[in-house]
Amino acid sequence: MNIFKKVLILGIICTLPLVKVDAIGKKSLATDASAGIHPDILKAIHEANVGLRTQEARVAHTQRAVELFKKHFGKDIDVYFVLTGTAANVLGLSALLKPYQAIICPESAHINVKEMGALENYTGSKLLTVTTADGKLTVDDIKNKLQEINNKKPGYIELTVQPKVISITQATELGTLYSPEELKKLTAFAHANGLYVHMDGYKLCNAAASLNVTLAQITTDVGIDLLSFGGTGGGMMIGNAVIFFDKDLSKDFKYIHKQGMQSAGKSRFIAAQFTALLSNDLWLRNAQNANNMAQFLAQELKMIPQVKISRAVQTNAVFAIIDPKLIPILQERFFFYIWDKATSEVRWTTSFDTTKEEIQDFVDFFKETIKSQSSDPSP
Predict the structure, then answer these.
(1) Among 159, 254, 278, 330, which residue carries the largest CB count within 10 Å?
(2) Confidence band (pLDDT; 50, 70, 90) for 50?
(3) CATH no. for residue 290?
(4) Structural domain for 20, as ranges
């Protein structure tokens, strides 16, 4: 290769970091999964890609990650890595259920509305949903679903599915949080009635950061039985963890894990990412930035009369009701989801790499759009 080609290639490489390219020409406020990979996690992937390729070396990556999970959640846990959040929820719950048993969950739960019926399809179990205003379950909500197992009489004929698990999400799909006290009440009631408690923890880091508690204080310490712990929202490329807080519940999970097609041959790359995420408070710093950017976005939007913040902003999601005519115009430049078309409620989500400049860019464009619409004489 001659010197001219070398200089040309070097010049192209050196300019790449200066160019921020979006393949579809839009910035995303739709989900934190749209964010990139944190540099520390990319470095961990690279380090897992070099060196010895022996079985011992591969296992060492998993052991390091598991030890960090035990540091955060307690030593008496079992941890399994899976590729997706749906796999974490479905396979984890399948270890607690028989086909004639059911899960009590909010109507808004991810396992109910965002996982293509995977839970019912895979386990044969039924979801017993509860309509809630804020995405959170209460003890009274659960009591109303337990009549079939609490009111049996002599000669009773079994006709309905039997509730066995309560599934909650922290933070909820509506951006709300369970306090440690609320979680303790739920788990105490569940265990007193022979029920397990599963937590969908895709946004667990955001919840812990907002509540100013450790990860254990809203899982291990409050009596959660099963946790689906998400990584992609916190800066990972791919991967989730299934955590059992009672090893008796996970005694057969290695078979479920394999049969569920989650025994990845290169799972060390998932483990290496979790090692980075759970080291040096990276999980906390990433969650704090995402939460802070949501607060900043909400504060800026509150100054726009045409925006009604519709739900409390507790983590990294901002829900608002806006003029439906504005939505397609805003979506031309910023991708986000319509949460409720009937009420014109939308959701904007920030992430670990969201900046104030990006938020300000969105807010400025929002104001420009409103101004242009108000000055448009067409009906």
Answers:
(1) 278
(2) confident
(3) 3.90.1150.10
(4) 3-30+285-372
Same domain, 214 and 147: yes
Instruction: Report pTM.
Output: 0.90
Yes or no: say if 139 and 186 are a contact pair by the CB < 8 Å rule: yes
CA 177 to CA 343: how far, in whole Å?
23
Q: Residue 43: name the closest of 285, 273, 268, 279 by CA.
A: 273
Higher local confidence (pLDDT), 164 or 147: 164
Instruction: Tell me, yes or no, whether 35 lies in a domain.
Output: no
368 and 264 co-located in one domain: no
Burial class (CB in 10 A: 0-12, 13-18, 19+), 84: middle
Q: Is the pLDDT score of 23 beyond 60?
A: no
Any domain includes 58: yes
Q: How confident is the model at residue 59 (pLDDT cuts 50, 70, 90)?
A: confident
Residue 242 near residue 253, CB atoms below 8 Å: yes
Instruction: Answer yes or no: is 89 within a domain.
Output: yes
Strand order in the sheet with 78-82: 78-82, 240-244, 226-230, 196-201, 162-169, 101-106, 126-130
Residues 297-340: tens digit of each pLDDT: 999 999 999 999 999 999 999 999 999 999 999 999 999 999 99
Q: What percent helix, strand, coil does the chain show, rounded to 5?
A: 45, 15, 40
